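Slide 14.
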Amino acid sequence: MRPMVRPALRRAWRDLRYVQFGVASAHAVVVGPVDTTTGSVLELLDGTRGLPLLRKEARGLGVPDAWLDALLNRLARAGLLEDTAADGRGADALRWGAGALDRLRADLGSLSVVHRGPGEPLRRLAARSGVRVQVRGAGRVGAAVAALLSAAGVGRVDVLDGGRVQPWDVAPGGLPPESVGERRDAAARRLVARSAPGGRAARAGGPEPGLSLVVVAPRDGLAAYAPDPVAAGAWVGTGIPHLFAGVLEATGVVGPLVLPGGSACARCLELGRVDADPAWPRLMAQWRSGRRSGAAPACDAGLAASVAGLAAAHALAFLDGDVPASAGARWEVSSPLLRWRASVVRPHGGCPCGAAEGEEDRVGRERASAALDGQDTMAG
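Slide 15: predicted structure.
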């Protein structure tokens, strides 16, 4: 073991006795009381020393072994301690090419803030290399999402789309200008390969992994704003999680992230809209079937980049084992105010996806638990 205080969390003394690790309140930890000797020992925890050398240098500061071990345990319980020796166990999974691990150092630092068990950040990052994601759409949003996922270490990113790249598909972080006129799927594959830390889209060898997630980012933003429940039904039926993202007119949308049987699906969303607006089916029938001119869809570069970034972040949080806020919710932002707002998408009782039954069971368990807690309180 080579202990190291997590370097991604900036350190500052609140006063002479308390040290704060981290600036942002979401992840900051305050440790104390701490004396000057402890402060000197903290400087030794930089990941370059094994325990024998660390104990030797700590003794030189007048710190006995038992006291040092207690400090290490205290920091570990606070989620502030990393073991740099763990790199050797997980780094091989990240070495797809020269400099791959170095390309992912910043991502590793971010994971170390969120997942604080010793060796856990590297394990999560290495696990991404065995994941397969499908992005449906290679427009300004979809291409950027695919590039971001590949750059973050996702081992395989497949992009599905038809037709040829148009000038208005081009955007920073997405398809480049030289791809205009090429097949969209081929241009997206090259983008994914260039974005991958090892210089290629996936590791060679081994069986093809199953789909962990589908990101639905169609060039026609209507299919993200109001997803077709028939098209999405196949993913619900096969249990494949899927996330909707896109730009319609001057509104960007991320979500919902559909966890089949566990959260609201595209049909739940549509049924809820019908309940709120009886004219919705008539409107959708016209919008979905109406012929559009050859004009480029409204999708400004800044809004597309914002939507792609948030969608990729939510996708990565899910792939890393968390349940992001887009599960059962939609995040929307509209120009010119650009204020993100969230709306809950609840499972609909008339939808056959099964999420409503699960919601009822969850609410029932929460009510039963609250009732038991009340009984315990009265009994006490």
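Speaker note: The chain is about 45% helix and 15% strand.
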